[in-house]
DNA sequence: TATGAATGAGTCTTCATTCAT
DNA sequence: GATGAATGAAGACTCATTCAT
């Protein structure tokens, strides 16, 4: 899986394996052995590159955090590209929420923040980033209301394994924007 | 902590300790040892009263589920009592979300459902119950939109450790109801 | 299963349940709980009637030993009744060995004696009893040889789950008697 | 007992300790702790080298099975070397049965097969191997009769802690061969 | 007399971590 | 630099036995 003599790649492979386990299981229940197996590296490598399991876990979370940021970036870029409106917001949100696998992966980190104070920063980063991106268009108050609704829709999609209908999303967003 | 020879009380104490750990840790990461220590009973008691940790865990979740139902009941009763309106909804919601301890306890179970399929039923029960109670007043579609927003506000309060301002809640709710 | 207020019957039921477990499992791996469940008595009864599990186990073995004696008695009576001869011996032995369930039950105790010195007396009792019953007809030496062969045939039937053919048994017995 | 950093030797030591416990106790009632103590290794070593107790047990049984095969091989070679006859068979059998320690070790596995279906294959292998080796000399039927008698003599020696007299063995064998 | 509550010892197993090689 | 051997702590679970009732 990883070439010998490429420590950085190996380290990366380990972190990615850990991140994959976190999003898969939806829980942060890592063990050195599971990470090693998933990454296709020997057990010793996981302890060689990371002083402790916590450190490895932190690196994996950092990776997921970056992915979440990128995700948000991408979505807001889409909105800007298509022109800001309730309809476009609903479209983009619905598209995103329809990708259950993606929602599931993102939620692992997001919900972990709900219970694990260490991870709260990541969840807040998402919320704050969303508000920051929205407030240029609608002001701080409506931006917060929208972000809250989006989070609710996110939770809803996660739990129901499918999003609210696009039309309902648009109606609600329109209501919040008025 | 518990009187000797009062099996029902002892069983109850164990379940309550487990539930407390779940809401405290926000995670369902129970161990017999932790439950025993929390309940102030010997280790053996936890295995004597529950055939497996899963069974103990299930009993604790059931307890929390009942509490969550009661919570919802109480809140909707309050709304009805005061008269259904955006202002009243915002009041009741804000009061509830201001009680961080309560929010924290409820969220443990709610968010657990996001990652643990076994617990999803509890999360859905809350959402569906809320929708059912709202739709008599506003129709199914608006009920769903409101419930989604309430969930978002719930997540928000959990993460920020304080709710959105009452006024913002009311404005958003009013928008969704229009 | 057992009437209240009949201590002797209850004691008996417990011993019988233990004996049944021993012959079923083929191993002496008793627990109070299993015996209690099998006997349909409360857990406490098993410790009330027997000071320890060893004592209960001993009582069960004693019961099985008695059954083994009765078995041997019955078989030799059959031989005497039909007239002592290689053919009759082969008939009776073959009939007995064909009853796999019976063989299986008897073997539990017999083989246990092979490895557990405490139980050796029971196994020896069977062998010695058989020799004693045979030697009036054929003398001590042939009686021993026959008993050895019978034990071999017993082991064989146990392992193969069916006896040697009747004809082979008769031929062998005839050879040993000559 | 074992050098550090010699995994193969350590693994071997653990298996041998397990096999010794099986033959000693005559029962397959292994525990990690007992094996570890017997082998002079820490508890963790027994679980490190074998994924489960069953796996460890299987390895020990395999070892004993091989020893049993070798035993049979050796005995039949002796018979062939000295020339096949009732006298030689009796000699070799008597010599073997006189070695109580050896008989005891072999019987552990053999009798275990009587009660544990998983181990039956080993017991049958012995019997079938013996028959196969004899039938070239005396035909299948007499080979089976002899093997049955040998098994009986084996059980007898095990239980009485000494074999039948050599002369009686020869007389019986001669009878079966006629 | 009879029983179920009670508990600590012991079982298998997993695993983070250390360290010899 | 890298890795697999090594180990003890901790986890879930079972149970003989004790004992209050």
Give a description of the structure.
Four copies of one chain form a homotetramer. With 178 residues, chain A is mainly α. The first copy, chain A, has one domain (7-177): Tetracycline Repressor, domain 2 (Orthogonal Bundle), CATH 1.10.357. The first copy, chain A, has eight helices and no strands. The model of chain A has no long low-confidence stretch (mean pLDDT 91). Chain B binds a DNA duplex (21 and 21 nucleotides) through helix 3.
Oligomer: homotetramer
Between the first and last Cα atoms of chain A, what is the distance in angstroms? 53 Å
The largest contact between protein chains, plus residue counts on each side, is:
A-B, 37 and 38 residues
Q: How many beta-strand segments of chain A?
A: 0
SSE inventory with pairings:
The structure is a homotetramer of 178-residue chains.
Chain A: H1 7-25, H2 32-39, H3 43-49, H4 53-82, H5 86-98, H6 100-115, H7 117-160, H8 166-177
Chain B binds a DNA duplex (21 and 21 nucleotides) through α3.
């Amino acid at each position: 899986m990883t070439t010998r003599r490429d420590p950085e790649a190996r380290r990366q492979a380990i972190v990615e394996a850990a991140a994959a386990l976190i999003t898969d299981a939806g829980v942060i229940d890592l063990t050195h052995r599971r990470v090693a197996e998933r990454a296709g590296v020997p057990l010793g490598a996981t302890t060689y590159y990371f002083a402790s399991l916590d450190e490895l876990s932190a690196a994996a979370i950092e990776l997921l955090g970056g992915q979440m940021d990128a995700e948000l970036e991408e979505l807001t870029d889409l909105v800007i590209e298509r022109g800001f409106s309730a309809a476009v917001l609903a479209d983009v949100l619905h598209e995103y929420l329809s990708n259950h696998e993606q929602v599931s992966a993102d939620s692992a980190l997001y919900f972990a923040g709900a219970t694990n104070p260490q991870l709260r920063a990541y969840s807040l980063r998402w919320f704050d980033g969303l508000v920051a991106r929205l407030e240029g268009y609608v002001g701080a108050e409506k931006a917060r209301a929208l972000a809250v609704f989006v989070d609710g829709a996110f939770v809803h999609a996660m739990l129901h394994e499918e999003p609210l209908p696009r039309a309902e999303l648009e109606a609600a967003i329109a209501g919040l924007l008025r």
